[in-house]
Amino acid sequence: MRVLIAERVVLRRLLSRSFREEKFGAFDHIVRVVAADVKQVEAMLLAGGLERAVARYLDPDIDDLEFVLEDAESIKPAETGQEARRLAIRLIADCVAMLRLLRLQADVDTAPFKAKEPLHQVARWLRKLRPDISQNLWQIGRGEVSDLAELEADAGTRVELYMSALRSSRTGPINLPTPEVVAPPPEAKRSGKPAAKAETAGRASKADAPAKPAPEPIENSFPVYLRTEACFNDYLPTFRSQSNALERVALRERSWRTRELLARTASEGIMAYDALVDFCRTIRGYSSARAAATLLGFDAHRARCMASLARIVANQGLSERDATDALEIYQALHAIAPQALRAIDYIQFCILKLARGEIDAASGLLEQSKLEQDNPLEAALLFSNILRAYTRQDAMGGANSFEHLQPLNLLYRKYGMEPVRRRESANPFSGLHAGPLDHYINDGPKVTVLMTTYNPTVDMSVAVNSVLAQSWRNLELIIIDDCSADDLFTTVKAWEERDPRIKVLRQSVNGGTYVAKNQGLAVADGEFITCHDSDDWSHPRKIEHQMETLARSDAPACSSQWVRASLDLEFLLFSGSGFLSYENPSSLLYRRDAIRDRVGFYDSVRTGADSEMKHRIETVFGKSVVEASEVPLAFGLVHDGALTANTLGRGWFSPERRFYRSAWRAWHDRIAEGSDDPYLPLETLPRRFEVPPGIRPNRPEPKPEGHREQFDVVMISDFRMGGGNTMSTLEEILAQNKGGLRTAICQVGAFRKGFFHKEFIDSKVQEAVSAGLVEWIDLSEQVDTKLLTIRYPGVFQFADRLESGIQPETVMVILNQPPAEANSLDRRYDVEDCRANIDRIFGRQQKWAPIGPAVRDAIDPASAIGLLTESDWVNIVDVSEYSGPRSGFVGDRPVLGRHGRDDYSKWPETREAVFQAYPDTPDFAVRILGGAASLKPLIGEQVPDNWTVLEFNSVRVPKYLETIDFFVFHHHPARIEAFGRTVIEAMAAGCVAILPPSFRPLFQDSVIYCSPAEVKAVAINLYKDLERFKHLSKKGYDFVCKNFGYEAHSSRLNLLGVGSRVIGD
């Protein structure tokens, strides 16, 4: 218990108010006392924390406590003892909050909540204390109490009584003491004696106290406020161990939710984001910060989470205060746990300091960071920015001075390259050049440089001249104008007359930069191809270094680094990697014929095709692209007109880019498997895969203001998930498509374990989109739909900040899983949380439909009053895809099988039960689709000789099911199997299903029910009786056709007002 307290003692008021009001002495006093004797000061510290963090848990009848606090503080006390009285007010005011937090923690820890009734009695007892605490507040505010020791004693008495009751509630029947908090007698005030002594004289002993009746029982219901905390606590280990992956999700999707999750993870569930930032603001830079961290149990996991949080806030840019908040977190972390700061943190930290004008502080951080030893390039870039700030501040050399580039030039010289210099120009970027060159490459193979432009808003001369100034002299520069206005094209065309190596092409229709590049690639004469953006500057050794690197390597292509810079050459953080320098996507240099013959051309889209081309080359050749040089070979100008300005940022991709990346990755997977062709011709219609309309070359005209797309059904889920839920969603998509309904899917990420590393949606979902069976929309799009189905409620578990442009007429939440497993140790979502978030986001009444009786039974009736539908939303299959009833057996012995996701919970609990359900004897054959790795702890590394194990998705399910007679599915007893989609697939294929009795409410008498120990006998008996086997096969098939076919789905959509013709008409 003492450890539990010590982790939470200095979180809110004793820190934030004391530091904010510069009352450092009070805090230092607390730290010293804690170091000497934790137990003595438990009361003081308990009373000092967490008002803000636990405000949501306080009962409504505690509100007057806050008013009392405000009134008490508004009364001016006498000068004598002012500090003591003010601190005392805070101690008493927070006492109730802290006690309630401990009750909350105790409830969560007491899984599976067997002691909830005694704990409710403790809660009632605490409420009885509230009037006495309020009275004390009034007395303090009026100056009637002046001795802090007395207040400490009162608080200590209450806490000791509470802790005693709490301990007993965990071990047996509770015996609550009578709360007694007595105000100091008038004598203490008149005599001026210490209040603690007056209390001893004026208060009756506990033994003499009049007996009071025991507290009345409190209703036996699960505390509402516990559900969110219990759910978060189950997610907490995942957040701790995968904070870096959570960070990538946050940046990729600009998710606000991850801030709250990481803040609470860093504080062990205590503080929300705002509270954590406030905490950081109070402790930064003071000598007591380390002591505070020690008391909080601030370990390496929490420090890493705080560092991730700082990076997220600094990079997302969702709020005007983000830079300030990130700086506060970094400063606190630097004071508490500097060892948690990595290179990318020091880079970000220095940039934030420079933005605030704290140049000396940024310089000091750079020295502390050890970047110069570990990453000299990043150190040089940061040092250049620091020197730039000094020169601008001191007017040394003026705004156009290049002196600040000297740190970077030292690196160029180190690698045998000319330093960067400047010519007279309107701005530093326009004056960039390097030289003079002491040698050139005149006899190398020709390199074609492709440069596209469209209505250029910046001077192209920087880019063009930097290409013409390359030390690699045998080159041609093809400038492709993407249908600019006539007057601007005239300017572009003029370049052709300045150098015979320049060729200018013009597109008749604007189709985007990659369509234009393809036209240049089609006419290129060079043996090698590379690209160059029209607003970048390249070092004159860029092509030379890349050609030399490629010649020394067997890689199929070569790229180089760049940095992003402003017009006055401040180096900007632009990449989600956290580094100022990173790979230049347009720098890819490759052999023309080798790539054009096997890979073809760029994908004809408006964004992201350079990354696709690189990955396609790597997939086809089976080798990675090699990177040239240890220094940036190009500077990329950052300006408002840049192509990437609105589609990507620091780790963020626009929804269109995210969808495109997911689409091409699925195509590349098929290429790697040998099931698809990697070659893209010059004209890429029809497309190999679907892309969002906004990035197509012939993108549609902008919709008029206020336009809203109309859909019949929109389906929300986390489509990165494989397995049953995704397959069930796809079946509904196919049924709706056959019924003539317009359907869209919308990706919302869940925070379940294992999802963080999955960036792309499931390949089968991607294929459905590419085939035109369903459309892809973003949550923010302006859309109307007759029906919104949420296929996994857990995506809205931590969705307090999510917003949506989707306006549904009806909201149906499909419960594909229960909120928790039977043992309550794996909580997926909380009904109340998700319900409230869905209400807020979509503003429509919602109905929750379980997919089967098992899920319905697992829902707490108290949380689902008026919420559940009368009938279940069962899964469906297209029975025409399966082989139907059997006429015989597949082999000379019974063949048992199962398919599905390989997870321990989907197998029997013990080794004995596994081999009972799936025999290891040669008189049976066992065929498993989906893998069996999770069985290794039970059965060892090797599966039995009579087993055949196929990996997930390695065989089409209908084809696999034709190879087994009996579908056996016995799972872990703690698992609540939501539906058993794989069962109806097996029945549609004519298999006889052998299941545990828990499935009877769903499948009635269409399958056989037995325990694992009975499976062998059931299978043997049926194998000996072909007619009975054929009868059961037909019975199961008919049951599926009637209850789980597409017609059933069409009927329930009609009941919801979504018209669909009957499938098959």
From TrEMBL:
Gene3D superfamilies: Glycogen Phosphorylase B, Spore Coat Polysaccharide Biosynthesis Protein SpsA, Chain A. Keywords: Glycosyltransferase, Transferase. The keyword Glycosyltransferase applies. Residues 173-215 are annotated as: Disordered. The keyword Transferase applies. Residues 448-559 form the Glycosyltransferase 2-like domain. Pfam families: Glycos_transf_2 (PF00535). One of its GO terms (molecular function) is glycosyltransferase activity. Belongs to the glycosyltransferase 2 family. This is Glycosyltransferase 2-like domain-containing protein. It comes from Sphingomonas hengshuiensis.
